[in-house]
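Record type: monomer structure entry
Structure origin: computed from sequence
Chain ID: A
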Amino acid sequence: MARRLSIGKTIICLLAIIVISLVLDTKARMHRRYQFFKIAVKWPTSYCNTGHFSCQGPIVVNFTIHGLFPMYFPNTIVPPYDEDSGCTDITPMNEDDIDLDYLRSILDEMNMYWLDVVYDNWVRMNLALWRRQFWRHGKCFDYPDHPLYHFNIALDFIRRVNLLQILDDVLSSTIKCDGLGRNKAVRARARITPRNREGYLASYIAGNISRAGRKRVQIRCNEDAHKVLQLFEVVICFEPNGVAIPCAHGYIDCTENDMINFPLP
């Protein structure tokens, strides 16, 4: 009997050790530097035509920055620093200390590419947006004591990558019969442009952007006020060193086989 009790106590102790180890491991995994990051750009019309917002015109006819998001694999956003300070060893700058004077070197580009599209470039609302983005995501990114770095990484992407041009110009392959019963590959411009008529296959949009960057991107869809699916965001994934990597999930709120609009204002 004593031996059975001893064995039982041993099993209980082992189970307790396993549980404690799992808890500690979970906490350790929560307290760590980001593993990759995403840059998301949104299509303003698809933000403003949902019926949820009353955007002050004119609506920008170009992709604008939604945000830069530090991530954990496989696809988890790093929590805000104020909720879990283990994401960095550096004390971040307070978001309230970010003002127009601090941002003066990039202010024009911030107002152009990272604006609150609801308020038609109302600088005070833009500043509130930038502070909120830094509070949520920038404090767990590189050099959190210098928010300019966080903003400049996203700006550098949109400076270099003209998605409207890529969607219109990138070559796509199609199979056509040559008239002799033989099939051959034909290269043609994708010609994906904003329009208020029939949409595009979601995989056609995603595939052409991915082909241009040679890495799989992620597209996010939403519905307009009439419940019509439309392109909302394009997301590109990067290693911490800035090298593009394939995004794990190609589609959010739509599938590759859905027809989606790319609407004009």
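Annotation 1: Helices lie at 2-30, 44-48, 107-113, 123-136, 147-160, 163-169, 202-213.
Annotation 2: Residues 13-29, 173-178 have pLDDT under 50 and may be disordered.
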